[in-house]
Design brief:
By secondary structure, the protein is α+β, with helices and mostly antiparallel strands. The protein contains 13 helices and 18 strands.
Length: 468
């Protein structure tokens, strides 16, 4: 996808009448575009900034069921998310999704092991409904827990339980969804801002948009328009004069800490007074998060406060030694969760389930949900759009549509020694590249063959080559 493709797709958007126009290029909107395109529907997808520029690049970077939701008895949500997690690992994007082990530290000698152990055992049992490729949980003694995570404080620890989930580069995954939707016929364009809705006889018939790069306006017409804008849901609904859903923005902050500051062979999930804290391995770093507080300022620029940093450091230091300090923080990012809400709900208790509703004739909103369950949200939204159009479209098939780079990934991974020898790159570099590009890796290696200087690392990082 390049400038030429963008120009071609913008021309299509001006000329065609689409079955579905999707507003929002995060994971949900990209999922809607892919679901609709793979049913044989014509689709236009627009995003006001870059794809995945908002919430979908600022998550905890996990495909997970949400262990803490078991305590809230949201068994359906957890089961659904675990099935989706397994699909990502097994079929849809095995090059992007990878297993990650978490250790849950215990502080009470008797009741806590039984209570937490039962919850994690149920978590594993629910995962078994979807061909779970991950190892089952394990109970550890205090000594075994300290061997796995030497940085755990000895004075608060009585033992631990380990379990497995999956992690993903959220921004790359969302971009892969967009590219896969484009491969299946969707017209897609970033830097296209919806400024109004088109109407005919009281019905929404598409959007009026502005090309942010040229300031030109264009009308994009569709039989159904799907509002998949996350925390901007209310703004699009207000254009239609309706408020079918109300979304509250909940800010989640993560700290980035160098890997050598925490001596651990697994991630951590630790109970806090109101929720849980994750310490997640991420390449050469740890991600420490997250917070869960209201955000009422600029939706495009959520920011961490000093209180957010102090809170995360304080919660992490309840479990870690030596203690983390502000000097250990090398990065911070904040994202906004789009939560469905009532008037008095606190953000930690708001629904992580999703909803699809008709805002006005021709306009649907899909909101809520979790990153992991984007595919289910997308299928529900397209089902509603198909029903509103009254057409005979096939059922969703995205559970069997691999993303770009997935087909042939395992065979290519089996050849990583050969690829390293042919390219002159170390095997560990090939592994990293396979984890980003999957079976598309030969395209990048061809760039390196034609221009060896592109094999140099970008200034300031060992993780990315110039060719990337």
């Amino acid at each position: 996808m390049d400038a030429r493709q963008r120009a071609q797709d913008l021309a299509r958007m001006r000329d065609e009448v689409f079955d579905i126009v999707v507003i929002g290029g995060g994971v949900t909107g990209a999922g809607v575009a892919l679901d609709a395109a793979t049913r044989g529907l014509s689709v236009a997808l627009v995003e006001q900034r870059d794809f995945a520029a908002g919430t979908s690049s600022r998550s905890s970077k996990l495909f997970h069921g949400g262990l803490r939701y078991l305590e809230q008895l949201e068994l359906g949500l957890v089961t659904e998310a675990l099935q989706e997690r397994n699909l990502m690992l097994n079929r849809l994007c095995p090059h992007l999704a990878r297993p990650v082990t978490f250790l849950y530290p215990l502080t009470h000698r008797v009741w806590e092991r039984a209570y937490v152990g039962a919850g994690i055992a149920l978590y594993d049992a629910l995962a078994a409904f979807g061909s779970n490729p991950l190892p089952r949980h394990r109970h550890l003694s205090k000594r075994a827990a300290r061997r796995l995570v030497p940085s755990l404080r000895d004075d608060v620890l009585t033992g631990a339980i380990t379990y497995s989930d999956a992690q993903v580069d959220d921004a790359r995954h969302t971009m892969s969804l967009v590219r896969t939707a484009h491969h299946h016929g969707a017209a897609v364009a970033a830097s296209v801002q919806v400024v109004d809705l088109l109407r005919e006889d009281g019905r929404v018939t598409g959007v009026r948009a502005r090309d942010v790069e040229t300031d030109d306006e264009l009308d994009i017409r569709g039989r159904q328009t799907v509002n998949a804008t996350g925390v901007w849901t209310d703004e699009i609904q207000d254009m239609a004069g309706g408020a079918a859903l109300r979304v509250r923005a909940s800010k989640g902050v993560h700290l980035v800490v160098p890997r050598d500051r925490i001596d651990a062979g697994a991630g951590l999930i630790c109970r806090t007074p109101t929720s849980v804290l994750f310490v997640i391995p991420w390449g050469d770093f740890w991600l420490v998060g997250t917070t869960d507080t209201d955000w009422n300022l600029d939706l495009a620029r959520p920011a961490a406060s000093a209180a957010d940093l102090d809170y995360l450091l304080g919660q992490a230091n309840r479990w870690l030694r030596p203690a983390l300090t502000h000097a250990d923080i090398v990065g911070v990012y904040a994202g906004l969760r789009p939560l469905l809400h009532g008037e008095s709900d606190s953000t930690s208790k708001l629904s992580r389930e999703h909803a699809v509703t008709t805002v006005a004739p021709g306009l649907l909103s899909v909101a809520g949900g979790k990153y992991t369950t984007y595919r289910v949200m997308a299928a529900d939204a397209v089902d509603a759009a198909v029903a509103a159009m009254g057409v005979d479209a096939p059922a969703s098939c995205t559970e069997s549509v691999p993303l770009v780079g997935a087909t042939g990934y395992q065979a290519m991974r089996n050849r990583r020694d050969q690829l390293a020898a042919e390219s002159g790159l170390p095997v560990d570099r090939i592994d990293r590249l396979l984890g980003r590009y999957g079976s598309e890796l030969p395209v990048l290696l061809e760039l390196l063959r034609t221009d060896p200087a592109m094999a140099e690392c970008l200034p300031g990082t060992d993780d990315y080559l110039a060719a990337e």
